[in-house]
Design a protein that fits this description.
By secondary structure, the chain is an alpha+beta fold. It is 21% helix and 27% strand. The chain contains 2 helices and 5 strands; from the N terminus they run ββαβαββ. A hairpin with a 2-residue loop joins strand 4 and strand 5. The radius of gyration is 12 Å and the shape is globular.
């Protein structure tokens, strides 16, 4: 069962029931175990929040991250390229939506 930490803070972990998505993404149907609200956080904070969540997740669990900083695309891709984790990314309405599956 997903853990939740201080739901009111940006970058905090959220259980999947508290969906952060408000887009018309083609990936809206994807399920995830954790979500991270990284909106309005400058890089590298979205990446750091994602890595903190990955450390708590079990293998095969999916983390959804909502970010607004454009450099998050570069940071996330560079990190994923160095790991065995898998990532889906969607840009929607100046938001960057990521689904990371822990390897």
């Amino acid at each position: 069962m997903p853990q939740s930490e201080n739901k009111s803070n940006k970058g905090s972990l959220q259980p999947k029931e508290d969906s952060l998505k408000n887009s018309d993404s083609e990936y809206d149907h994807l399920e995830y175990n954790y979500s991270v609200d990284a909106t309005d956080l400058s890089c590298p904070l979205p990446l750091l929040k994602m890595k903190q969540c990955l450390n708590k997740a079990d293998r095969g669990e999916v983390i959804f991250i909502l970010a607004t900083h454009p450099a998050s695309q570069r940071d996330f891709q560079a990190y994923i390229d160095m790991t065995a984790h898998q990532m889906l990314m969607q840009k929607s309405n100046n938001q960057f939506l990521y689904w990371i599956t822990k390897a």
